[in-house]
Write a structure and sequence with these properties.
Oligomer: single chain
Number of helices: 5
Strand content: under 5%
Radius of gyration: 16 Å
CATH class of the largest domain: Mainly Alpha
Structural class: mainly alpha
CATH topology of the largest domain: 434 Repressor (Amino-terminal Domain)
């Protein structure tokens, strides 16, 4: 049970950080999702469980792509994304910042 709670807290933190990075208020994100600001606030506060469909919509609006990774590969994926072992402490892989999105 503790692992489930910790995982949900991590997901909520990532959604919150992505919203802030995009410069969106809770109200603006809620408007895009058709939800009141108070609902976004409750999600970010961990007071309600977010529905999977709402989570996917929110993540994609925030330019995040949720995906399932086989448990056996999780350490490798985390290492690639976090840069574990790198003296500079930056991710081993990063998207190209100067490439243009395809239309």
């Amino acid at each position: 049970m503790w692992y489930h709670i910790k995982m949900m807290e991590d997901i909520i933190k990532k959604l919150y950080a992505a919203r802030k990075t995009k410069g969106l208020t809770q109200g603006a994100l809620g408007a895009r999702m058709g939800l009141p600001q108070s609902h976004i606030s409750q999600i970010e506060a961990g007071k309600i469980d977010i529905r999977l469909s709402s989570f996917l919509e929110m993540a994609r609006l925030l330019d995040l792509e949720p995906m399932l990774v086989p448990r056996s590969l999780t350490p490798a994926v985390r290492s690639i994304l976090s840069g574990d072992g790198d003296e500079i402490s930056r991710p081993t892989w990063q998207p190209d910042s100067d490439t243009e999105e395809l239309s």
